[in-house]
Every structure is written in structure tokens, then in C-alpha cells.
Design brief:
By secondary structure, the chain is of the alpha/beta class. It is built from 17 helices and 17 strands.
């Protein structure tokens, strides 16, 4: 049985002001560090799930964070090669490693390639020093361009980069100009997000206090500008925030959008197994996480009988939270994620999975979808044996409004 795997590396040298993902500043005292001890614990956790679910191969692997590249070259090699060596079949369709520009060097790339990484995903966010400073991002444009030059000469596999539209300090001119620069490099996939100002982040407080000026409307217009520029350069929008050259779409992220099963390991990681109706999120206490999985290695025998595996799983509940996914929740998530994609939702797959008529659920004949199609915000695509219902370019801009209407 093949599964996709997400590995969370929750360490950063400095947390950006807009970020609400789980990560810690590893430079602080008395905190866990991004070292071999953490990697060993991750591998122990993976070994448990491999045994429990009789996993025989990885379909895709995504190493995210935080900042996975903070592990440096040798540890990246150890982590990735160890994950592959769990099985006789070491082929993985896609292995993605997130990196920050300041970590990019020949040693990191050589070890990544040697281990089997097929896709580097680098967070740029902006080629604008003013904006980078205002969001408390450690890097500057010079560092980003240096990283891109190294990637251009040393990395031969897939390369994805991230940008954010509507960052403080950005102008339409500076925002558009950065894409002219990025097209000089062998980038084949670009994630373009609109800035979301999350509560409890430092950026939210600065905006609320009037220290930084920011406009959601301006951010949305910038995103449209970015989308148009990307499409002119041959990057097609295959998901709300993701653009790729044909054949370079993210296989791992498609697992999430298609609501497929995946294992999540590492402190703060989430995994979802829809066939069991469960989702878990690991503890955010890295020390607690490490203490458990370190002891697991020394005290437990992975070749134990199924009864022992069940006993181990009961103990695991001390370092993760588990929630049940009801059928209604699964249907909601399936539609929510499916309509994010340009291809939309398959009528045949929806019926096969839920035993329900998609057309009735979304109101194709006289309901919500019908109205959106009449307003030229949605489209229907037919193949030989299936029908897909999707939002078009304009409709995707109003995705949340559409989902609220049908759900």
C-alpha cells in the first residue's frame, strides 16, 4: 500500500511577522534544536506508521516547515535516504524539500540530489527590500538572487518559488517588476498567495495599531496583476494559488486537494486517513515529542505483534490530538478542496466516494451552480465517461463565497 508522507521541521532562524504556522526560533536557549536527535525521532515515528498500516512505498514525500533547509546537507541526506530505505521499492514520484534562500549552497543541493529530492520549493515572498524589512523577514533581495544563481548552476531538477501579493510597502510597479526578474531563472512552478493578515501575528498588531498601512483591496488587485503576468509567460493556473508550466504541477499538494490519505510526522504535523475517518495533529511541544519517540526507539520492538502496536498507539495519544472526520465533514472538505482546482470536481469520483449525486449537491439544474454558471463564473467540462464542474478564472476569485452558498 502506497501513502504520501508529510514531514514537519518546525525550526526557523527568525519568524516572519505574517506567519502563523507552527515554528520556533531555534536560536533561543533551552529549546530543541534542528539536529540528528530530532531527525531520529521523526524516523522512529515514521517506522511506527509503516508497521501499523503495512505501508510498502511512498507515493510522494514533502518536507516542510518551519525551515527544513536549516538541517543542512548531511542531515537532509540522512532524513530523505532513510525514508526511502524503509522499502525495497525506493522509487518515489516526487520528493519536495522546502528551503530558505539563505540556506541554499552547493553542499545542500548536492546532498539533496544524492538523497533523491526531485523538487526544491524556495520561499521568496518578494524581491523588494522594503517589503521584506516590514514583514521582519531575515533575507534581502541580494541573498535571494544569490540563491537563485546557485540553483541555476547547481540544481537540475524541478524548482518552485513562492510569492505573496499585497505585502506592506509593495507598489504595483515593484510587484510586477519582480516577475520579470524571476523569469530569468529556471523556475517551473510558482505559488502566488494573497497576503492574509492572521490575528495574533505581529503583522496584525502593527496594522491594527496603525504602524503599517495595508489594504486588502490593493492586495487582491496585485494578485490579479501577478496572475496575468504568470499566464503570459506560460504558467497556467491549475489551483487557486498555484501556477505551473505543463507537467510541473505539485504532485504532493494534489494529494491534499484530492482529499487523499497521507501520513504526517514531526512536531506540529497533521496526518489524515479518510478510510479510518481520523485526523491527528502532533504536539507543538518539541521536547515532549522528542522524549516520546526517543524512548519509543529504545523500549519498543517494531516486530511486535499487532496487540503491542495497539498498546503503543494508546500511548501515542499523549503526544498527538486525534479528531474524528464525519462523512458530512469529508464531503465538505472534498468540495472545498476540489473547487480550488481549475479542473474542478468529478461527478463520477464524487458518486464513487460518497454514493451521492454531485449535481444535486451543488445545484446544477436550478441551484447555486446553475446561478454561477449563468453569471459566467462557473463551467462544465465533459469527457467520454465523466463530467467536471468547476469555477472559472473569475469564479475562483470568489471561491469562499461559492462554498458558503453550496455548503
Amino acid at each position: 500500500m502506497e501513502y504520501s508522507l508529510y514531514v514537519h521541521i518546525p525550526f526557523c532562524t527568525q519568524k516572519c511577522d505574517y506567519c502563523d504556522f507552527f515554528s520556533i526560533n531555534n536560536s533561543k536557549k533551552n529549546l530543541a534544536k534542528p539536529d540528528s536527535s530530532y531527525v531520529d525521532c521523526v524516523l522512529n515515528e515514521v517506522a511506527f506508521y509503516v508497521k501499523k498500516y503495512s505501508i510498502t512505498a511512498w507515493s510522494t514525500i514533502y518536507i516542510g516547515g518551519g525551515t527544513p533547509s536549516i538541517l543542512k546537507g548531511e542531515l537532509v541526506y540522512t532524513l530523505v535516504s532513510s525514508l526511502k530505505n524503509l522499502f525495497k521499492d525506493k522509487k518515489v514520484k516526487e520528493i519536495t524539500l522546502e528551503v530558505n534562500p539563505e540556506d541554499v549552497c552547493a553542499e545542500l543541493l548536492e546532498n539533496s540530489e544524492r538523497a533523491g529530492v526531485t523538487r526544491i520549493s524556495m520561499g521568496i515572498q518578494a524581491l523588494d527590500d522594503k517589503s521584506l524589512t516590514l514583514i521582519n523577514r531575515k533575507i534581502d533581495v541580494k541573498t535571494v538572487l544569490h540563491a537563485l544563481e546557485i540553483l541555476k548552476t547547481k540544481w537540475k531538477n524541478k524548482l518552485s518559488v513562492d510569492f505573496i501579493a499585497g505585502l506592506p510597502g509593495q507598489t504595483y510597479k515593484s510587484f510586477g517588476a519582480q516577475f520579470d526578474k524571476i523569469f530569468e531563472y529556471p523556475v517551473d512552478h510558482i505559488s502566488l498567495y494573497t497576503l492574509t493578515v492572521e490575528e495574533k501575528t505581529p503583522l496584525y498588531k502593527k496594522i491594527a495599531d496603525g504602524k503599517i498601512k495595508w489594504s486588502q483591496e490593493k492586495a487582491d488587485r496585485m494578485w490579479i496583476l501577478g496572475r496575468n503576468l504568470l499566464e503570459k509567460k506560460g504558467f497556467y493556473q491549475y489551483e487557486v494559488s498555484n501556477f505551473a508550466k505543463p507537467g510541473f504541477e505539485s504532485l504532493h499538494n494534489s494529494v491534499y486537494w484530492n482529499l487523499e490519505n497521507y501520513i504526517g510526522v514531526g512536531s506540529g504535523a497533521t496526518g489524515s486517513l479518510y478510510f479510518e475517518g481520523v485526523r491527528w495533529t502532533n504536539t507543538l511541544n518539541i521536547k515532549k515529542y522528542e522524549d516520546f519517540w526517543k524512548n519509543f526507539q529504545s523500549n519498543q520492538n517494531l516486530d511486535a505483534e499487532k496487540k503491542n502496536l495497539q498498546e503503543i498507539e494508546q500511548k501515542i495519544e499523549s503526544v498527538r490530538n486525534v479528531e474524528k472526520i464525519s462523512k458530512n465533514d469529508e464531503i465538505f472538505e472534498y468540495l472545498m478542496m476540489g473547487f480550488r482546482m481549475k479542473k474542478g470536481v468529478s461527478s463520477q469520483k464524487f458518486f464513487k466516494r460518497f454514493g451521492l449525486n454531485l449535481e444535486e449537491k451543488i445545484g446544477v439544474e436550478n441551484g447555486v451552480f446553475f446561478e454561477w454558471k449563468e453569471r459566467k463564473l462557473a463551467s462544465v467540462f465533459k469527457t467520454e465517461d465523466d463530467t467536471f464542474y468547476a469555477l472559472n478564472k473569475k469564479g475562483l476569485m470568489l471561491l469562499n463565497r461559492f462554498l458558503e452558498s453550496i455548503l
